[in-house]
Amino acid sequence: MARGRRPGDADTREQIAEAARLRFAELGFDRTTLRSVATDAGVDPALISHYFGSKAELFATVVDLPVDPSVVIPRIVAGDPGTAGERLAVFALDLLTDEAKRTRIVSIVRSVTSAPESAAIIRERLTAELLAPLARAIGADQPEYRGSLLMSQIVGLTLARAIVRIEPLASADPRSVAASVAPALQHYLTGPVRPPDDAGAPGSQDGSPS
Amino acid sequence: MARGRRPGDADTREQIAEAARLRFAELGFDRTTLRSVATDAGVDPALISHYFGSKAELFATVVDLPVDPSVVIPRIVAGDPGTAGERLAVFALDLLTDEAKRTRIVSIVRSVTSAPESAAIIRERLTAELLAPLARAIGADQPEYRGSLLMSQIVGLTLARAIVRIEPLASADPRSVAASVAPALQHYLTGPVRPPDDAGAPGSQDGSPS
């Protein structure tokens, strides 16, 4: 039924995107081929490149971020900057508690770790669209660096809690985890963070016996 | 030449282990079969189960931890407990800077995320043999919970820095990253961490405008 549509139709683009979403969700990044997406969407494979570029770009485009930065950032920035880490922690843990969102996040993190070269795009997006702007909105210096540090903790938490399930973290009460992780996130948001190219010693390592 | 050995020989066990190490390193956990390991080692597949149990157990046994807890723990515990997070951060970043060790760590983290159900064993081991004992040696309460929180940050850091390479974290000077991550690790080691089953609110969320 989709066959009669002209290429260039906005619907065609959406059909490709929807077929890609389903394939990526089902098979993951590696095992999804552009040819199979094209077949599912009833279009010529060349159209996919036309609309989306490479497979990695298609993936990055159709896998929506599980959160909307324009909603989340103001919510975390509102209030005392000294407790923003707590609000971010609660938000991240709530996401992992929501069944549908957790499934999407887990699928993204899995793709990211199994096909790092392509899925880096997703993580760059999460950092560039959500976490760095968050640090910037709070008025912190080095927002990009802080964003990538926040990312390392949040992705690690997702892995430990929802994918590999390391106990007792995996089964811990979400509010308890949020409270325990909040100071780390707060540090990355507003604490002293040394510039990435500053190679000075991190502190007094020398006085300790070995 | 190994064919003449009796089953039960300690050499047979080591031959299986060595064949498994090579296969896992080359193909990863999923694509390695016990049959191929048996062929490489010149033994009957049943011998593998006899010595090692399941494929997951074989994997956990032959993939050595990239660190020796009996060496690392005393080094991090020695000195002021208030700077142990810094020593742990420097140690973790040094590991990722060492080419050979980084390769092994990356291989372990990749297996862990691509085959979570089996490789959870590795992460449990890292937590149970290294990070929880570290928290215990420092005299912290809830060492297992602290160990799993430390794990979440260290694995996330490994992913961001060495696997997916999120910038500017990936290219940042290791000493700078260690200094920036140290307070988070210090918090997990000796800061206030709420028990995992304590469901109280993490703080004052209500006063902030929305």
TrEMBL record, chains A, B:
Transmembrane segments: none annotated. It holds the Pfam family TetR_N. Keywords: DNA-binding. The keyword Transcription does not apply. Residues 33-52 bind DNA. GO terms for molecular function: DNA-binding transcription factor activity; transcription cis-regulatory region binding. Gene3D superfamilies: Homeodomain-like (1.10.10.60), Tetracycline Repressor, domain 2 (1.10.357.10). Residues 10-70 form the HTH tetR-type domain. PROSITE patterns: HTH_TETR_2. The keyword Lyase does not apply. Residues 188-210 are annotated as: Disordered. This is DNA-binding transcriptional regulator, AcrR family.
